[in-house]
Amino acid sequence: MPLLLDTGVLYALADESDDWHVRSREYLAGNSDALLVPVTVVPEVCRLLRERLGSAAESRFVQSVGAEEVVLETVTPRDFQRSAELMSKYPDIGFVDASVVAVAERLKLRTIGTTDHRHFRSIRPAHVTAFELVP
Question: How much is the pTM?
């Protein structure tokens, strides 16, 4: 079963000063599942990397995506519809988080790699009682 990743884990991997860096790196080092990333997450990661760490960090991330170190997952029209429903129900989450949930529901994935436990813990997915949040 693939591990669905949110923005925070991907950012933390690149930023050694991030509080989640070591936990994220160690968790993923011990994980053999494919790393699945909704395409909606990529621009957010790129923006954070460029703003906080510079263009070289952003470029390294883009290269890793191109090298298929992560598997990109498309967001379907139904995922957009579900994202809008989630954003209405949970006003504290934005589109990127909502799209991660919509993809998880569509693929019946229970585990999300995220540093945003507060937001994802508040969401009640359609297919399971709650998400398992790692690291």
Answer: 0.95
